[in-house]
Write a structure and sequence with these properties.
The protein has ten helices and ten strands. The chain has 288 residues and is of the alpha/beta class. Helix 1 packs parallel to helix 3, helix 8 runs parallel beside helix 9 and helix 9 packs across helix 10. The strands form two sheets. It has an eight-stranded parallel beta barrel with strand order 1-2-3-4-5-6-7-10, surrounded by four helices. It has a two-stranded antiparallel ribbon with strand order 8-9. The longest helix is centred in the middle third of the chain and has 23 residues.
Length: 288
């Protein structure tokens, strides 16, 4: 199992110390959000360079940890054009130097579905989608120059929220750099709970070719339908079936653990690894 971890779960600290803590947790990979995780280097807009990327990568490499993806969670549909431009420029800078960090992906979500509702109540969804498409088109052009991927994460309440919309985005931005970060908990809606297997299978069947990264956590829904993150293994997600699908469609994909505190990490990590090994055992028995 290629299990990574969200770097800033450990808190913001010097790069070398962070690498030591990630390795001590038993993780071989990391999703690194520079601004949230590293305290001893200024990573503001304009500060990245090949040397900076190489330095950070070396700290993790010394501990046997690979930077699987850079997290650069911008709001690609921000209604303030100046703010959105600054965010786009930051993401493009991450794309340019991703290879120097030893990875080939930069990840983001897509902003709230209701961003433009206050100003455009009649067509806010259309304007949000147009804005997202324009941003992703620009980012994909930059990614193509550097041979890296956009890892775009659908979320149930965001501008990009369903498998169908992910397919639409891929169709409207026909660049091979556009990939999907699949977090089943973030895409989960109450109406999917009773047929989770159909939901999970449907996403993999439709989009496996473009899925390049997995996020793993757990959730439940409150009595009034609110989604809450809980410790892995205590929520509702059908991880045995999900991992069976991943072994079928994406057997060596990076799986980044999140949604827990650093104190909960050992238990959550062990739970995920145990399910993965049990799934492999059943797979071998079935195909033996």
């Amino acid at each position: 199992m290629r299990q990574s971890v969200l770097s800033h779960i450990y808190g913001k600290q010097p790069a070398a110390d962070l690498a030591v803590r990630v390795a001590a947790g038993g993780f071989k990979g990391v999703q690194l959000a520079l601004a949230k995780a590293i305290s001893d280097i200024d990573t503001a807009n304009g500060k990245l360079s090949p040397g900076l990327g190489n330095y950070v990568a070396e700290q993790f490499d010394r501990q046997g940890v690979r930077i699987a993806v850079l997290g650069c969670y911008i709001d690609p549909v921000h209604p303030d054009r100046d703010v959105r431009r600054s965010e786009i420029n930051r993401f493009k800078e991450h794309l340019r130097y991703a290879r120097d960090f030893g990875c080939s992906m930069v990840a983001t979500e897509t902003g709230s579905f209701h961003t433009y509702q206050p100003t455009h109540p009649d067509n806010y969804a259309e304007i949000g989608w147009q804005t997202l498409r324009e941003t992703v088109t620009e980012l994909a052009e930059e990614a193509e120059k550097w041979g890296v991927h956009l890892a775009i994460e659908p979320v149930a309440t965001h501008t990009l929220q369903t498998a169908e919309l992910m397919e639409q985005l891929i169709s409207e931005v026909p660049s091979p750099t556009v990939g999907m970060l699949f977090d089943p908990c973030n895409m989960m809606k109450t109406e999917f709970v009773d047929d989770q297997q159909g939901f999970l299978r449907g996403v993999l069947e439709r989009l496996a070719e473009r899925i390049i990264l997995i996020h793993a956590k757990d959730i439940h829904f409150t009595a009034d339908g609110q989604k809450e993150e809980v410790l892995a293994g205590t929520g509702i997600l059908d991880y045995p079936y999900f991992f069976e699908l991943l072994q079928q469609y994406k057997p060596h994909i990076d799986i980044s653990l999140e949604g827990v505190t650093k104190e909960q990490l050992p238990q959550a990590s062990l739970h995920m690894r145990r399910i993965w090994q049990e799934t492999i055992g059943r797979h071998h028995q079935t195909n033996g």
